[in-house]
Model the fold of this input.
Amino acid sequence: MNNQILGLHHITAIANNAQANFAFYTKVLGLRMVKKTVNFDDPGTYHFYYGNETGEPGTILTFFPWEGIGAGRNGTGMATDIRYAVPQGSLPFWAARFKEQNVLQQPIAEVFGSPSLSFQDPDGLQLTLVEASNDKRTPWITDAVGIETATRGFHSVELSLKDSKATASVLTDLLGYQLIQSEGKRHRFATSSVDTASIIDILEIPEGRAGVSAAGTNHHIAFRVKDEEVQMAIREKILSKGLNITPKINRDYFYSLYFREPGGVLFEIATDNPGFAVDEPVDQLGSSLRLPKQYEPARAKIEAVLPKLN
Done:
């Protein structure tokens, strides 16, 4: 660990239905529900966190399931492809599993030389499984998805932008990434500070339509830092470039800063501390509804309006 960005911390997206979202990510993809809580700004809406056993940064996909919000549209100014690392040779298993579960998928293809399988969740959120040979992260496994095939955490995320130049400058000058490869209009950036969840791709679409934020689209991507000291040093760098960034916000399981990069994507800087075991032991993560302290007095009312999960 060092005083810089340590790849991706988490990625947050929007869903239309809590039950369908919960069933897909825990049953079909075989992820662990690491934390079941509510949106800080809208306590009548869940905030789900899915990941590996401990909720390791770089494995966490989170959702705001706003009931009945309707479909959004992927487009420029958004993260438009969320990619998970899986073991080499596991894509045929996933293709067969997706067919069995009626998951919309594309044929196995290659992205920057790696076998990849693109698919969509029930809301149309674009995801991809990428075969990775050296990912040593310990996965969460289920009866249906074993250790030979389980997702290891994020491989990368792709941003769709009308112009890549200003965003690339944020990645390289402020966040410590380097351009490592280009294929046509797709440009790959990576940080050498970590071995996993270290890649950001930019797909440049000058004539692309702007995305519409609703179900099936990304809300923001969060970059990982060791602690608040590093976080605040990076905040000063971002401010020095004339970008607006929030003060530090306590999200109970990490501390957050938010800023919108020039291409329109909402970026977050999130700390490792204090982690998801701060309010329930690791063996019980995600098993009960956890509420931010300010909402605990209203627990009965909140539980009454939240959808029941089966």
Q: What stands out?
A: Residues 8-305 form a domain with the 2,3-Dihydroxybiphenyl 1,2-Dioxygenase; domain 1 fold (CATH 3.10.180.10). The longest helix spans residues 228-240. The CA atoms of residues 190 and 199 lie 4 Å apart. The first strand starts at residue 8 and ends at 15.
